[in-house]
Amino acid sequence: MRYRTFFGRSCVVIRILQEASRWVLSLAVSFVLALLICTYIIQPTKVSGHSMEPTLANSERLFILKWTHTFSITPNYGDIVVIDSRVDRVRTFKDELLDNPFFNFVTHQSDQEIFYIKRVIGKPGDTLEFKNHHVYRNGEELNEPYLKETMLYTSEQSYTVPEDHIFVMGDNRNHSKDSREIGFIPLSHVLGKKL
């Protein structure tokens, strides 16, 4: 009788351990899949600041497509992109993983001050000029109905976008820290585009 009781309890313990191991395996696989999806396919993000008004409001939530970054696809004119503003450093695989929103959630860190959401104005080879309170790309004035107000910025200098870089600006031109200040954005620093 004691043998049956011991054997019965052992079977229950074994079943509990098997069930627990299935749960642990399921959670581990789910975590890895979520990490891969957020790192390479699609990622949620939040607008921080007013530089993209009126198109995007402060604290607005949106999704960005990551495969443009994953496959080094040059974004199109007018695309809204998320960039890493630290253009003076090389991005590494470690950056790709640690920039994942999951890690920011777990560590309670907010790196929003280094990630900017901007609009693509210039692509490799383009010459940009800022005169008469307008942007000129390759000699033609851009039609920009998305701007919040007339841009006050002008410059005597023209800018030619180098290979593998883009030039970005915020829609709220008078209150935007963008390529006019931080410089050309390497394609490796374009983390994705707005869905």
From TrEMBL:
Keywords linked to the UniProt accession: Hydrolase, Membrane, Protease, Transmembrane, Transmembrane helix
Transmembrane annotation, as ranges: 23-42
Pfam families registered for this protein in UniProt: Peptidase_S26
Top-level taxon of the source organism: Bacteria
Catalysed reactions, as listed in the record: Cleavage of hydrophobic, N-terminal signal or leader sequences from secreted and periplasmic proteins
Family: Belongs to the peptidase S26 family.
The protein's name: Signal peptidase I
Species, as recorded: Paenibacillus selenitireducens
Lineage: Bacteria, Bacillati, Bacillota, Bacilli, Bacillales
